[in-house]
Design goal:
595 residues, alpha+beta, Beta-Lactamase, Helix Hairpins, Heat Shock Protein 90, 6-stranded antiparallel sheet, 20 strands, His_kinase_dom, nucleotide-binding, ATP-binding, phosphoprotein, transmembrane helix
C-alpha cells in the first residue's frame, strides 16, 4: 500500500469485485439456462424427427395397403381358388422392406399372412393407420403400419401392411454418437427395450412418473437429470390405433459430451468470476499505469527542481486536471530558472562591483608609480650614454609599462563605464564603420568581410562609439581565430522589435567546456590578452538594454550576436514611427538619418 499505483489497483478491484460477482452469477445462470433450453430444444427436435419417421412409415404402409386393396377388388373367383398369382405379388412387396403383409376377414379368418400372427383376433376390422403390437414367432414387435378394408368377392376383408420399429429400421440414428436413443415397447408384461443405440444403457427402465404423464396425453417430457443425472433426455410417447400407450422413446444427451455439459452452474459461475477478476486486474494495472504515468513525470520534475535543474519540463497530459498541474509546474520551473539566472547575475555583479572597487583603488595607486617609472626610464635612456644591451633593456621596460598602462586604462573603463550617449541611427552604420576601419588589417590577413543585411534599415537608439568598439572587438577576435585567412560574416536582422548583429567566423570554434566562461572578465585563451574584450561587449549590450550571446560548434567556427531593441517611436525626431529605412520617391533606400 505504499505506492499510488497499488492503491489504485486495489481500489479498482474493490469497486469491480461486487459487480463482477453479480454479473458472473447472472451470466452463469443465463448461459446455463440458455444451454439447457438449447439442449431441450435440440432433443425435442430429434424426438419430433423420430416421430416423423414413424409417421412417414405409417403413411407409406397406408399407400401400399391401398394398392393391395385395389388389386384384391379385381381378383376373380378362379384366382382366389388358386392364390399363387396374388401371393407372388404380395411376396414382391415383402421383398422391398415390409415385415408384415396379411389379409383377413371380419371373422379373423387369415386368407394370407407373410408371418404367423399370434392373437389375430386383436387386429382391427376397419381402415386405420398407426402403431400396432404384433406377436409372431414367439417375439413381440411394434409395427408402424396401416389397415385397409376391401370387398373381396362380395365379402369384407382387411389388408394389414407394416414395418417393425426395430434396430434395422431406425439404426441410422446411431450416426449421432452423442445421442443415446432407446425405444421401449409394451409387451403386456411392462415396457421392455426393443431398440438401443448404446447397449450399455439398457438396464434403466422408464420412470413410472414419466409413463403416467405420457399416458395422460403429454407429447414430450424433458428431464435434465435422467438416469440419475447421467443424461439430459426427452421422453416421447407413441400411442396405438386404439389410443393406448404402446411405446416410449428415450432420446438423451450424455452429460459428458462436451465442455458445457461437464461443468455445472456453480463451476461456470466460478470460472466467469475468475476470468472477470483477472480481466479486472489487467485493466486496473493498465488504467493505473495511465493515471500514474503523468504523476511520475511530475515527481521526477519536482526532484529535478529540488536538485537545481530548472530546465526540467513535464508533458501536459493525463487529463484536464493533471495537464493543468503539469502546465503550472512548467511555468513555475521556467520562473524559477529565471529567478536563479537573475540571482546568479546579481551575485556576479555584486562580486564584480566589490572587485571593481578594490581594483580601482589599486589601479589608481599603480598608475602614478607607472608614470614616474616610464618618465624616469625615458630620461635615462635619452640622456645617458648606454650600450646597445642596456638601451634594449630600457626599451623593454618602457614597452611593458605602456602595456600595463593600457591594461589599467581598459580595466578602469570596464569598472567605471561611461553612460551611453544615445542617438538614433541605423544598425548597418555600425558594421560599415568597423569594416572601413579594419579594412587594411583584413586585407593583410587575407580575410574577407561579408555583410548580409536583412534588417531593412532598422533604427536603434544607442551610443555609436560604444557599439563601434564592441563590434570591433568581435571582428578582431574573429580575425585572431582565423590565422590562415577566410571569411567573416556579419548578419543583420530584425524580429519582434529586436535588431541583431551577428559576427561569424570560420575558425576552429570554441570548446564546449569553456563557452560558458568567455564573457567573464579576465578570462582569456590568448597569450597576451587581458580577458576584458568580450566582457566589455556584454556590458555595452546590457547598457543598451540588449544582450550578447555566443553559439559555437568545435571545428565549425563561432558566432557572436548582439541583440538590441529597435528605437521607440518617441525616440525619433518628430515622434513619427519608423521601422526601417525611409524610401525616397524613386523607391531607393534613403540612408539619411536625422540626428
Amino acid at each position: 500500500m505504499t505506492t499510488l499505483r497499488l492503491r489504485l489497483v486495489i481500489g479498482f478491484l474493490l469497486v469491480s469485485v461486487p459487480a463482477m460477482l453479480a454479473s458472473a452469477y447472472v451470466a452463469a445462470r443465463l448461459i446455463s439456462n440458455a444451454f439447457e433450453s438449447n439442449v431441450e430444444q435440440w432433443l425435442g427436435e430429434t424426438s419430433r424427427y423420430f416421430k416423423l419417421e414413424v409417421r412417414e412409415a405409417t403413411l407409406e404402409a397406408q399407400r401400399v395397403a391401398s394398392v393391395i386393396a385395389m388389386r384384391l377388388e379385381t381378383v376373380t373367383e378362379d384366382e382366389l381358388r388358386h392364390p399363387t398369382i396374388i401371393e407372388n405379388d404380395l411376396a414382391v412387396l415383402g421383398s422391398v422392406g415390409y415385415d408384415l403383409i396379411a389379409i383377413y376377414t371380419d371373422e379373423h379368418e387369415m386368407l394370407y399372412a407373410s408371418r404367423n400372427i399370434v392373437a389375430a383376433d386383436t387386429l382391427p376390422r376397419q381402415t386405420v393407420q398407426g402403431i400396432f403390437k404384433i406377436e409372431t414367432d414367439g417375439k413381440h414387435y411394434i409395427m408402424a403400419g396401416a389397415v385397409q378394408t376391401v370387398k373381396l368377392l362380395g365379402k369384407t376383408a382387411h389388408v394389414i401392411v407394416g414395418t417393425w420399429l426395430d434396430d434395422q429400421y431406425l439404426g441410422g440414428i446411431k450416426v449421432v454418437t452423442s445421442l443415446d436413443v432407446r425405444l421401449f415397447a409394451d409387451t403386456g408384461a411392462g415396457f421392455v427395450p426393443i431398440l438401443l443405440t448404446h447397449s450399455a444403457a439398457a438396464a434403466r427402465p422408464i420412470p413410472q412418473a414419466i409413463r403416467d404423464k405420457l399416458e395422460a396425453g403429454a407429447k414430450t417430457i424433458f428431464d435434465s437429470q435422467a438416469d440419475e443425472g447421467a443424461y439430459r433426455a426427452v421422453y416421447t410417447g407413441f400411442h396405438g390405433f386404439d389410443g393406448k400407450l404402446v411405446a416410449v422413446a428415450f432420446i438423451g444427451l450424455t452429460s459428458r459430451a462436451g465442455f458445457f455439459e461437464q461443468i455445472g452452474r456453480w463451476r461456470l459461475f466460478v470460472g466467469i468470476f475468475l476470468f472477470g477478476s483477472a480481466l479486472s486486474i489487467i485493466v486496473g494495472v493498465a488504467m493505473s499505469g495511465i493515471l500514474v504515468k503523468p504523476l511520475r513525470a511530475l515527481t521526477r520534475g519536482v526532484r529535478s527542481i529540488t536538485a537545481g535543474d530548472y530546465r526540467q519540463r513535464v508533458p501536459a497530459q493525463g487529463g484536464r486536471e493533471i495537464a493543468e498541474l503539469a502546465t503550472g509546474f512548467n511555468i513555475m520551473a521556467e520562473q524559477l530558472g529565471k529567478v536563479q539566472a537573475l540571482e546568479a547575475e546579481l551575485r556576479r555583479r555584486d562580486r564584480f562591483s566589490a572587485l571593481g572597487q578594490a581594483a580601482m583603488v589599486i589601479a589608481h595607486e599603480v598608475r602614478n608609480p607607472l608614470g614616474i617609472i616610464k618618465t624616469s626610464t625615458e630620461v635615462v635612456r635619452n640622456r645617458a650614454k648606454l650600450g646597445p644591451s642596456e638601451d634594449r633593456m630600457l626599451g623593454y621596460i618602457i614597452d611593458e609599462v605602456r602595456r600595463i598602462e593600457t591594461l589599467v586604462r581598459d580595466f578602469l573603463d570596464f569598472a567605471q563605464p561611461k553612460e551611453p550617449s544615445k542617438s538614433v541611427f541605423q544598425l548597418r552604420s555600425v558594421i560599415d564603420r568597423v569594416a572601413s576601419f579594419a579594412a587594411p588589417e583584413l586585407a593583410k590577413r587575407h580575410i574577407a568581410l561579408d555583410i548580409q543585411d536583412e534588417s531593412n534599415g532598422v533604427l536603434i537608439s544607442g551610443d555609436p562609439d560604444q557599439l563601434h568598439q564592441a563590434c570591433l572587438n568581435l571582428v578582431l577576435n574573429a580575425m585572431d581565430a582565423m590565422s590562415a585567412g577566410g571569411t567573416i560574416t556579419a548578419s543583420l536582422a530584425v524580429e519582434d522589435m529586436q535588431a541583431s548583429l551577428t559576427i561569424s567566423d570560420s575558425g576552429p570554434g570554441i570548446p564546449a567546456a569553456i563557452i560558458g566562461q568567455i564573457f567573464n572578465p579576465f578570462f582569456t585563451t590568448k597569450a597576451k590578452g587581458t580577458g576584458l574584450g568580450l566582457a566589455k561587449v556584454q556590458s555595452v549590450a546590457a547598457a543598451h538594454g540588449g544582450t550578447a550571446r555566443c553559439t559555437s560548434r568545435e571545428g565549425q567556427g563561432a558566432s557572436f550576436t548582439i541583440a538590441l531593441p529597435v528605437a521607440a517611436p518617441d525616440a525619433l525626431p518628430g515622434g513619427a514611427p519608423k521601422t526601417g529605412a525611409e524610401k525616397s520617391d524613386t523607391g531607393k533606400t534613403d540612408a539619411r538619418v536625422p540626428l
